[in-house]
From TrEMBL:
Organism from which the protein derives: Arabis nemorensis
Predominant localisation class: plastid
Protein name as annotated: Plastid lipid-associated protein/fibrillin conserved domain-containing protein
Domain of life the protein comes from: Eukaryota
Signal peptide (residue range): none
C-alpha cells in the first residue's frame, strides 16, 4: 500500500518540470506557453457557467411577475396611492425628496398608461370647469422663495385653473394668505387663451395678469416677472390623463401637473 504513495524519480522530475513550466508562464506575461490541454489539472469554468444560466433564466420570469402585478392594479387603487403619497408635501412647490418624487412619478405613469380619455381635446366637456393643483414638479426654492417673501409673512393658498371652453380661455388663480397689513388674503390672476394643436394637447398664450388687492401688488411689484416666470402657464400643454375628477398634464419643459376637479369658483 505504501509503495503506491511514493513517486518514482521520473514522475517527480516530470512533476517538477511541469511546475517549472507553469511558473515561467506566469512570470513572463509576454509568452503564452502554458496550455490547459497539456496540464493534467485542467480548470473547467462549470460553476460560473451554471450561475450565469440560472441568473439569465430567472430574470425574465421576475420581470414578467412584476408586469403582471402592475397590470392587476386598478385605477382606483393607483389614485388612492397617489393621494396618500401627496400628503404633507404642499403640492411639491417647495420641493420633495428624491424617493418621494420617484414614487409619485411612478404612480403618475401608471395612471397615464390607463388613460380613459386618449383624445381629450375631442371631449372638451370633460375639460371645462374648475381644477385645483394638487401636485407639480415646478418648485420655488432658495433665492426665488426668499425674493417672493414666501418664508415670512406671505404663504401660498390654492392654485386654481378655471377653463372656459366656449371662450377658449383659462384663468389661473394663485391664492395668497398675507399676515400683516390688515390683509387676510389676496390673489394673482393670469388670463390666457388656448387653441387645440393635437388630439391631446393645446397651445396656451398669455394675455394678462393682475394682483389684488393693491397692497399685495405693492409687495410683488419688484418681482412680478419672477412670479410670472414660475406660474405662467404659457406654452405647449399635453393632457396625458383625464377622467371625471382628475387631470394629469405635462408642459413643454417636461413639468408634471396633477389637478383635481373642484367646485370652487
Amino acid at each position: 500500500m505504501s509503495s503506491k504513495l511514493i513517486q518514482s524519480p521520473s514522475m517527480a522530475a516530470a512533476s517538477r518540470g511541469t511546475n517549472a513550466k507553469m511558473l515561467l508562464s506566469f512570470t513572463n506575461l509576454n509568452r503564452n506557453t502554458m496550455s490547459f490541454t497539456e496540464n493534467p489539472f485542467r480548470l473547467r469554468p462549470m460553476f460560473i457557467g451554471k450561475v450565469t444560466e440560472q441568473s439569465s433564466a430567472s430574470s425574465p420570469n421576475q420581470q414578467q411577475e412584476e408586469e403582471d402585478e402592475t397590470d392587476d392594479i386598478t385605477v382606483s387603487q393607483i389614485k388612492e396611492d397617489l393621494y396618500e403619497a401627496l400628503k404633507g408635501i404642499n403640492r411639491g412647490i417647495f420641493g420633495v425628496n428624491s424617493d418621494k418624487k420617484t414614487e409619485i412619478e411612478h404612480l403618475v405613469k401608471l395612471l397615464e398608461c390607463r388613460n380613459p380619455t386618449p383624445e381629450p381635446t375631442g371631449e372638451l366637456d370633460k375639460i371645462g370647469g374648475c381644477w385645483k393643483l394638487i401636485y407639480s414638479t415646478i418648485t420655488v426654492l432658495g433665492s426665488k422663495r426668499t425674493k417672493l417673501g414666501l418664508r415670512t409673512f406671505v404663504s401660498l393658498g390654492d392654485l386654481l385653473q378655471q377653463i372656459d371652453i366656449a371662450q377658449g380661455k383659462m384663468v389661473h388663480v394663485l391664492k395668497f394668505d398675507v399676515r400683516g397689513l390688515n390683509l387676510h388674503d389676496g390673489e394673482f390672476r393670469i388670463v390666457a387663451s388656448f387653441k387645440i394643436t393635437s388630439k391631446s394637447s393645446v397651445e396656451i398664450t398669455y394675455e394678462s395678469s393682475t394682483i389684488v388687492p393693491d397692497q399685495l401688488m405693492n409687495i410683488f411689484r419688484k418681482n412680478l416677472n419672477l412670479l410670472l416666470g414660475i406660474f405662467n402657464p404659457e406654452g405647449q400643454f399635453e393632457m396625458s390623463y383625464l377622467d371625471e375628477d382628475l387631470q394629469v398634464g405635462r408642459d413643454g419643459k417636461g413639468n408634471v401637473f396633477v389637478l383635481e376637479r373642484t367646485e370652487k369658483p
